[in-house]
Structures are given as C-alpha cells and as structure tokens.
Design goal:
5 helices, globular
Length: 167
C-alpha cells in the first residue's frame, strides 16, 4: 500500500515538473522581449530624456520594436540611472496591477506609448550595438522620450498624482 502511494506521488510530481518546464520554455522568448538595459546618454531639451536601450528579440526588427516599448517602461517603472530621472514616474506599489487594463491597451503593438518616443536610431544602429545572444539578437537603440508629456498622460489616466496635487 505504501509503495503505491509513493509511486503515485512521484508520478504526480514528475508530471507537474514536466508541465512547469514546458511552460517555462514557452514563456522564455516572451520574457526576453521584456528584458532590457538602459544607459543614460545626455540631458535633452527640457521635458525630454535621451538614453540607449538594449533589448532582445528574434531579429533586429523585433529588437527595435521592443526597444521603443522598453524605453517607455524604463521611464515609467525603473528610472534611468545617472540622469535626472533616477526614480521612475510610477512609484506607487501595485500601480501596474491596479491599472492593468490601461497598460495593456497603452503597450499593445502600435499602441499609445509610441507617441512618447520622439526619436530613435532604428535606421542607423552602430555595429557595436548589435549582439547575438544564443538564438536571440540584442540591439542597442538610442531613444528620446518625451518624459513631461508621458508624465501628463499618466496623471490624466490617474496612474500617478499630479505634481501640483501635494501629498
């Protein structure tokens, strides 16, 4: 009786681990789309920030699309080290989850986020900014993000509080 229970438990555990491994492998490319690194380049015209975003994708075109989206995500959720925007615009814990529908629409392919990427070097990428990482490509793209306009969008959407609203 005990051996049957142990064998049954082992089989259940193996099937569960196999299912988790398959899901993990399936989600790996999606996770890589959302992975990025940023490097501050310089302060731009008032209300804008210029930095380089290194993003992953299946090919260079996918990397460029991911870089524009990841540039906005960096400004909103992680900040840009070495710049005047070291703290992200969205600082409230759980804001991403509580405004999930808004952000899903905002970041959809061809979505509203593209209005805040004023300039990018997607036509002339330096050869030093192209790397092969396993089966994926990693590309660095310089982007100019309209942070003041993006802040206003987040305020109007109720994601962040206005600077004038006080504490």
């Amino acid at each position: 009786m005990n051996i049957k229970v142990i064998v049954f438990a082992l089989l259940c555990g193996l099937m569960s681990a196999n299912a988790m491994f398959a899901q993990s492998k399936k989600d790996k490319n999606k996770l890589m789309d959302d992975e990025y690194e940023v490097k501050f380049l310089r302060t731009a015209v008032e209300g804008n920030i210029l930095f380089k975003v290194y993003s992953y994708g299946k090919n260079e075109d996918a990397c460029i699309v991911n870089a524009k989206r990841n540039a906005i995500k960096a400004v909103l959720f992680s900040g840009i080290p070495g710049s005047d925007l070291q703290r992200p615009l969205v600082t409230a814990a759980g804001a991403l989850e509580s405004h999930k529908d808004y952000f899903n629409a905002f970041f959809k392919p061809g979505g509203k986020y593209l209005q805040y990427v004023a300039l990018s070097t997607d036509g002339s990428i330096d050869s030093d900014d192209r790397l092969r990482v396993g089966k994926l490509t990693k590309v660095g793209v310089a982007v100019l993000v309209q942070k003041a306009a993006l802040r206003k969008e987040m305020e109007d959407a109720g994601v962040i509080k206005s600077l004038n609203s006080g504490f």
